[in-house]
Structure formats: C-alpha cells, structure tokens
Design a protein that fits this description.
heterodimer; A: 113 residues; mainly beta; five-stranded antiparallel beta sheet; B: 114 residues; four-stranded antiparallel beta sheet; 11 strands; 0% helix; globular
Chain lengths: 113, 114
Amino acid sequence: KQEVTQIPAALSVPEGENLVLNCSFTDSAIYNLQWFRQDPGKGLTSLLLIQSSQREQTSGRLNASLDKSSGRSTLYIAASQPGDSATYLCAVRQADSWGKLQFGAGTQVVVTP
Amino acid sequence: KAGVTQTPRYLIKTRGQQVTLSCSPISGHRSVSWYQQTPGQGLQFLFEYFSETQRNKGNFPGRFSGRQFSNSRSEMNVSTLELGDSALYLCASSLRGGVTDTQYFGPGTRLTVL
C-alpha cells in the first residue's frame, strides 16, 4: 500500500531564504508526482508535475526533483517571499488509478518579512 | 478558460440530513474526481467519473455516492450525514483522468454537520 510522507509538517523561514520541501513515497511504481499549493480554506493550485521518466521540472522560482528509486521528491523555492506562505502538498499517481491522486499530509510554510 | 467551479461554497447541515454538491469541470475535461479533506485524515480520494461512468472508488461507505452528466458536470451526494462528514470537499477535473493528465482543482465546498 502506497504511503506518502512530507516532513517537516511546518516550516518558518525569513524572506529571501531558499525553501526546501521534502516528499517521500514507499512504492516506487508511480507514473508521476505532482506538487500543489493550498492557501487556507481554498482549493489546490498545481505547481509542477513530474513524469516518472523525468528527473526534474522547473517553473520560475520553483524546481522539483524526482528520484523514483529512492522514493523521494524535493521542491525548491528560490528567494522565498511572504506570498509563498501556504501549505504545500505532494501527490503520486499509480497504475490502474483512474483519477486518483494519493496525497501527503502537506508542509505548512510561513515566510516572515 | 474558466476553471473548475463548485457550488455551493459553504453548507451547514444537521445530522441525518442529506446533501448534494455540484462540480463543473474545465471546458473539454471529461474526467471528474472527488476528494474529502479533513484535518485528521488529510486529502482522501472518493471517486472518479468519466463519460458518466464511475471508474474508480475510494474507501468510503455507501452513503457517499456520485454521478456525472453528459456535459461532464458531476454531483456527489452524502446521505444520513454524520458529524465526521464535516470537511472540505474538493473536485478536480482533467482531460481523460489518465495517469499523465494534470488535475485541476476547484475551490471546494465547506460542509459543516451540526
């Protein structure tokens, strides 16, 4: 059974510092991994999707890496800003999983001015 | 292009009642998935619909049901509400629901059961 874990559960950094968020999964037979952002009481915003054949994806200040064999993904956010404060969730897709994402519990990030 | 919309945004019900939530996917998307988010359990998959057929289902009791219409809009129904059903219900749409598709989420419906 797939388990997705995100550590730490919460993180506080001063503005300008780089953020490093971790996601681990127990079953490496995944098709892709997706990173989301969630603001309080709101829906999810997709940040990056990494296919299992890829090692890395980049979008602006965001960079996500994937190491399937070790069951890990890392989301890097460069030069953090107060507007980056949110909960970040990772989710994996597996075979025979129509429409189903399996989520980690998320990392709550606070960027202080 | 308009995003995923969910109605209503907030609902307050009492135990034993039933509730229907609605989700309109992004135009052209034919797959709709539903999730329940609670502080204790996090985000859990309820079910997925494609072309009016349920293709996948999570581990929820039969009180949770759904359907999809020919225009891809979807509804989920919860009967005999319990206190533990209080949650944020999110729907997500994608082109076909396949493993390479990106899912786009709506803002959610906040259900409170008293």
